[in-house]
Amino acid sequence: RVGLVEWEAERHLLMLDIHHIVTDGMSMSIFVEELLRLYNGETLEPLRIQYKEFAAWQQSEPVKERLKRQEAYWLDVLEGELPTLELPTDFVRPAARSFEGDVLPFSIDKQMTDSLQRIADENGATLYMVLLAAYSILLSKYSGQEDFIVGMPVSGRTHADLEPLIGMFVNTLAIRHYPSGEKAFLAYLNEVKETMLGAYDHQDYPFEELVKKLQAPRDQSRNPVFDVMFALETKEDNVQSFGDIKIESYPETHTVSQFDLTLVISLLDEGMNGQFEYATKLFTRNLIDNFAQDLLVIITQICEQPSVLLKDISLNGQSEQEQDVLEAIDIIF
Predict the structure, then answer these.
(1) Is the dihedral of CA 217, 144, 297, 91 positive or negative?
(2) Looking at the 3D structure of the chain, how many domains does it have?
(3) pTM of the predicted structure, to 2 decimals
(4) Residue 110 Cα to chain centre, angstroms
(5) CA torsion angle 18 22 24 28 (round to 10)
(6) The pLDDT of residue 43 is above 70
(7) Residue 58: which pLDDT band, with cuts at 50, 70 and 90?
(8) Which of 77, 158, 168, 314 counts the highest number of beta carbons within 10 A?
(9) Residue 321 pLDDT more than 80?
(10) Domain CATH for 121
């Protein structure tokens, strides 16, 4: 569905309502670009393939055989009882999931961004891997757990012919983390890197099929397999020009959270923007602000001392050892 509202002679609001089953984030960028080109009188080149051909290819025997091998990989890395991440919450978890949510934005300056990129380059990793490692350390510090799963989206466009297509290609990968306190950060980063490379090599296996195969007990109050997500995206300019036309995204109030907690990092020319999308039935904004501030604290320590042991990375100035001492003092007195 499409609607157009005229505010004034040369100012309009274009509203699009498209079901997620037929589109994804990259598709929307393609849609806007092609719409502007058509509006400007251009002729679009014919597509090499259609989405229906991609769907048919997915059902072909060679692909089914490859997915069978990928299935074995995921069942191996997720074998045994699946860990449930228990983050501290401000409210008792509802019996059934609520999708009411909000977002809390924060920023990572250019100096810190450059330091993270340097760590990535020196260790044969990507910025995505370094940020995911830092995020998982935050989750471990708050939960006290050293085995949990974080979800991450992948574009699913593994062939060049798929890049110009509009459709739903995105898949979700379940990345298992083991941030033991005795590990040095650089060693842990290498572990995260190897885990992600393995996941990328097996990214075609549909997450919904994995959920079925794992046969994990269903809990109406939680998502299957994991409750936290991480995503890194390239931030496009808010204002785009095409000929005499200028377009910008219309700001909307965010009131939905599909998961307990999702961290989204956007790359900018000068640093990065971050936002925590969170379930308001579980967390107050104050606790999420603590998450954001502590993530920056963790990143700062990683940049200053990349070889630091995970147990010595502190939150609000306290390492795990210091926290243990304080807890012991509390028990004594």
Answers:
(1) positive
(2) 1
(3) 0.89
(4) 21
(5) -50
(6) yes
(7) confident
(8) 314
(9) no
(10) 3.30.559.30
